[in-house]
Write a structure and sequence with these properties.
Layout lengths: L4 E2 L2 H10 L9 E8 L7 H21 L3 E7 L10 H7 L4 E5 L23 H14 L2 H10 L1 E16 L13 E4 L4 H7 L2 E4 L2 H10 L4 E4 L1 H6 L8 E18 H5 L3 H35 L3 E4 L2 H10 L3 H11 L4 H14 L12
Parallel strand pairs: 2-3, 2-4, 6-7, 9-10
Antiparallel strand pairs: 1-2, 4-9, 5-8, 5-9
Keywords: Periplasm, Signal, Transport
Organism: Flavimaricola marinus
Subcellular location: Periplasm
């Protein structure tokens, strides 16, 4: 299905027929944009709807002879959380915003921040560190166009991961055998702790917690508050696995190439600006989330340093394991993981454990 619509076609043909005698005709281009997550609880979607869309519309109108109109479909209205990459690839969406965590095979290596948890708690630092890896290893950007017929416009992410549970706990041993939901790439964090990981998605979380499908969620404050997970699982423990810049905003290559060059340039520039503001947007969302959870009556506690160190130590081999897995898939896993660990270290952060890649 071709969802790229070029307006005023008849006028454009007429202008071509009379040539230079007629002034240039402004065209209106309609693009479908969407995400599997809803606008509001998912900050990267909120920034897509409230920053990227209006900024593109404004700049195209002010700086070119054309106009852009967006048909917006968030919350799975056009494509679900695990369908957006493919929806952009086949043109159902012209532009998609999605978490690469729901593409564990196709975008396995792009989830590299998950493979080195307990990093810096600041989202702006995390976005900058991840961007440094993309710049150092072009394969990460090139895979979108080479294999999935789309172009990466900008990165976004999730704020700092913690753990919400139905019952209180204090030690890693308390989590033995407890079923906990997660998005996918972070599920090994639970396996190393002896918990039972359950693959799930944010839209399914509330009902699953309420009905006992699992008894906890690895989740950042903004979404734990936004999706009201604190109602069935009121105990929120601050652990600090780190924020994760694993969300992508991409555009279908054919859709981009049909646009005038000046419009293409604006979309790329606004995509870069979307990424540039993502870290501070996520930091603000985390602060609101933590305040909101306390005001909503959730029990918010901080995990002891010794328990956190014990959990981190259990994951010391995880980055190397994932790097070698990616290498085996024909991806530059060792290069990417080394680049990421180096970028974080260069930022002045001290890892709680000595992650090393063979």
């Amino acid at each position: 299905m071709n969802t790229f619509l070029k307006g005023t076609v008849g006028l454009a043909v007429l202008a071509g027929a009379v040539g230079a005698a007629m002034p240039a005709i402004a065209d209106t281009f309609t693009l479908r944009i969407g995400s599997g997550h809803p606008n509001g609880p998912a900050i990267y979607v909120t920034d897509t709807a409230n920053f990227f869309v209006p900024e593109v519309v404004r700049r195209v109108a002010e700086e070119t002879e054309h106009e852009i109109e967006f048909v917006e479909g968030y919350g799975g209205a056009i494509a679900g959380v695990a369908e957006t990459l493919e929806a952009v690839q086949n043109g159902i969406l012209d532009i998609g915003a999605y978490c690469m965590c729901f593409e564990p095979a196709k975008l396995f290596l792009h989830n590299f921040p998950y493979y080195a948890p307990f990093g810096p708690g600041d989202s702006a630092a995390n976005v900058a560190n991840v961007r440094a890896v993309y710049d150092q290893v072009p394969w990460l950007t090139e895979q979108f166009s080479a294999e999935y017929d789309q172009q990466l416009l900008g990165l976004h992410g999730w704020d700092n991961y913690h753990l919400g549970t139905t019952n209180p706990w204090a030690t890693v041993a308390d989590l033995q055998g407890v079923k906990i939901g997660g998005a996918g790439p972070n599920l090994p964090w639970l396996e190393f702790a002896g918990a039972i990981p359950v693959q799930s998605t944010l839209p399914d979380g509330y009902m699953s917690l309420q009905t006992g499908v699992y008894d906890g969620w690895l989740m950042f404050p903004s979404a734990y508050l936004g999706f009201k997970f604190y109602e069935p699982s009121p105990y929120y423990t601050l652990i600090g696995f780190g924020p994760m810049a694993v969300n992508a905003l991409t555009i279908n290559t054919r859709s981009m190439e049909r646009l005038p060059e000046d419009v293409q340039a604006i979309i790329r520039e606004v995509g870069a600006a979307y990424e540039a503001q993502a870290g501070e947007s996520l930091n603000a969302a985390q602060a609101r989330g933590l305040t909101g959870l306390t005001e909503a009556g959730a029990t918010v506690t901080t995990l002891g340093d010794d328990v956190r160190a014990e959990w981190a130590e259990s994951l010391v081999s995880f980055p190397n394991q994932q790097a070698k897995d990616a290498d085996g898939r024909g991806m530059p896993g060792t290069e990417v993981m080394n680049a990421y660990l180096a970028a974080v270290t260069a930022s002045g952060y001290e890892w709680p454990v000595d992650y090393a890649i063979d």
